[in-house]
Every structure is written in C-alpha cells, then in structure tokens.
Amino acid sequence: MALQPVQVVIGQLRKCNFAVEDLKWGLSTDDFYAFIQATFGDNTNNAIGIARIAITMDRMREIDFIYPSASYHYVIAVCEKDLPSAGDGTFFIALFAGVPVIATFAVIALTFVVLAGLITYSKVVIKQLSTSSSMSSGISALTHSLFRLYTIAFGQDGVAFSRSTPRSLYGLYIVWFFMVTVVGAVIYSLLPSYLTVSTAQLPFTDLQSFQRSGYDLVGPPLAFKILNESSDPVKQTLANEIQVIPLSEEKFYDCAERNEPLHGKYLQKTAFVNVAGFSHFSPRCQTSVIAVSHLAHIFIATFFTTKRSHLRDNFTREYLVLQEHGLVQHLDTLQYFNNIRKAGFTFQQAQRCQTNAFVSTSTVSRKSIGWRTLAFGFWFCAASAGVSVYVLVIERMVYSLRNS
C-alpha cells in the first residue's frame, strides 16, 4: 500500500535565538548553522519548525528531518496563494474527495447484499419456523421494524403517523440507498472539522494525482538532468513533465511575485522542483513547500510557511495532536531570531538556549489522528446502523403512543 501523506507541521516556536535538537543528518553543526544564516539572513518574519512525517493507514512508517545530507534531494513546491482554501468545493465534492471509487462501490454493493439477505431471511425462513421460537420472533420483529418506513399526515385533529412497507424490493433498495447516503454524507462532511486545513489543501500527493492536478511543473536544467538520468521510473516521468527554465529566469523560479511578467509564460497554477532546503527557503519567498519531499515511489507531504501565514495555527495544532498520540518522539526543530546575525550570535550561545514546549493558539482535538484513518466504508456501515436504530426507536415510540 502506498504511503498516505499527512503533512509537515509548522510549530509555534518560543523566543529562543537558535536551537537544534538531536542533529541526525550529514552536515556538521557549524555547517548547519552557517547554512541557516545564509538562507534566512536577518529576516524578521520567519519562525520555523520543520518535520517530515509519513503515516500509513495502519501505522507510522517514517519520521525524520526534512533537510538532505549531501545527496541531491528534491522537493516540489507550490505558492501558498495557489492552494485552495478550506471551504472551497461543493458539499458532495468534499464528501467523496479521496474516497477510492472501487472500494466505495464494493462497500455499497456488499451492504445491499446483506440487506437483501436479511429481508429474504425474514420473509422466507423465519415464517417457516415455529412461532414459539423467541429468537425467530425477535429477528422477525427486528427486521420488519428496520425496513418499514413512516409517513406523517397533518390533519385538523393533529399529526398522524402511519407505517408502510415498500411493495417492491427494488423500491426498498432505492429508499435505503438515499437514506444511508444522506446520513453518511452529513457525517463525512463533518470530518474536515476534525482535521487540519492543510489536509484538504494538498493539491497532489503522488505522481498520478500530480498529473491530474493541472499544475505546470518547472525546474532548472540541473534538476531535469539528475531526474532524467535516475533509474527510478517515477523520477524519469517527472523529468518528462518538467519545463526547463533558463538560469537567467531563476529569480522567478526562486519565488517571484505573481505580477511579474515572467509568470505569464506558465499556467496559472505552477509547481517548482528544486533541491530541498535551498532556493525555496528564502526570507522574501511566500511559498509553502508541499506534497513531495523526495521524488521516489514514496511521496511524503511537506509544508513550509512563514510566521505570519494564516495556515500556521493549523500546523501548530496538528503537531500537538501528533505529539499527544506519541507519533512525534524525535522531532528536529530549528528557530531563527530576527537579530541573529547583527547580534553576532554563536552556536555556543545557541546550545545554552533550551527549546521550550510548543504552545497551541487553537483548540487541540484528540480526534485528529483517529478520524483521519477511518475509511468511507466504515462510515457507510455506521450510518446504516444509525438509521436502523433510529427507525426502531421511532417505531417503539409510536407504538407506545398508540397504546397509551
């Protein structure tokens, strides 16, 4: 099963000049510090916390730092303004987004087969059994109560409830399909409120979804050469998708504003490919690195955002949720203060600065991880059971009112 990307978490960092914990990658400490200084300069708008997290449907597969050691490690980046907002899309688009088509129809078909079996058993088998059997009587009463529908008649003397049963088994299928679909749609539409906004904003998570996303992929000649010469078919496919840009236009590639004339050469939605940790992490760049942290068969979601970004609180919440569930145990973080270069800050001073706990500016939900991994089939079955119990309770209430 392919890895399902979650997202990288941008944490809210305390006022510590610079701190590195559990440095476990190829560069030395001094090289790392020099790299941070060269990358961010004396910018005042960035406070960064970076992690790379990938979780399968059943267990977490990988947690490590985003930066490469010495090898060419590429990312795909998109501008933050190209990301859809959390509320974009219609109700049914949000409902069925990310739901495998084959699995969905398989669950629906299996559910209706079970319903048909229950109806057949209640109408054919149970009637042939002895009526003295309490179990048979109970099953018969249960199935009849589940599959009967109620109509409401408004009259001068009040409201009257009447019970009816579909004459056709096909009619029963249609009615139950719409009932369960509506209930399931309502429940499934509530799921985004339990997830971070970033989950819904991933424009692509693997090669197939990238090819369907409509993004125009651009990159420098070196990226095209390395990807094209790789033995990995995924990297070769991405090399074929790249529109190579000249070195003279690399300013736009680094992160130009949307109003620059050069942008007219590409589609409205543009993705960039480059070595991780360099061109995209510029202080003047308003870019979120997203969706692919290294171009191989395993795709991992990656986010990078600025301190003032409206997405930042969501990343903070997600980090805390992952931490509460024990999924983040060895998270490498870095913090950059606005006057680090002017103050002549040294790494020895940074070592004495302890990283404090992350502080959330939004409500932390413990449901974030558990609800994310639930399949649509589970919700379909849960909705069916919920509707069944609801109909059974209504029948008992009406029966009590009639006999009172």
Automatic annotation (TrEMBL):
<keyword id="KW-0472">Membrane</keyword>
<keyword id="KW-1003">Cell membrane</keyword>
<dbReference type="GO" id="GO:0005886">
    <property type="term" value="C:plasma membrane"/>
</dbReference>
<feature type="transmembrane region" description="Helical">
    <location>
        <begin position="91"/>
        <end position="121"/>
    </location>
</feature>
<keyword id="KW-0812">Transmembrane</keyword>
<keyword id="KW-0675">Receptor</keyword>
<keyword id="KW-1133">Transmembrane helix</keyword>
<keyword id="KW-0325">Glycoprotein</keyword>
<dbReference type="InterPro" id="IPR052192">
    <property type="entry name" value="Insect_Ionotropic_Sensory_Rcpt"/>
</dbReference>
<feature type="transmembrane region" description="Helical">
    <location>
        <begin position="133"/>
        <end position="150"/>
    </location>
</feature>
<feature type="transmembrane region" description="Helical">
    <location>
        <begin position="374"/>
        <end position="394"/>
    </location>
</feature>
<feature type="transmembrane region" description="Helical">
    <location>
        <begin position="170"/>
        <end position="191"/>
    </location>
</feature>
<protein>
    <submittedName>
        <fullName>Uncharacterized protein</fullName>
    </submittedName>
</protein>
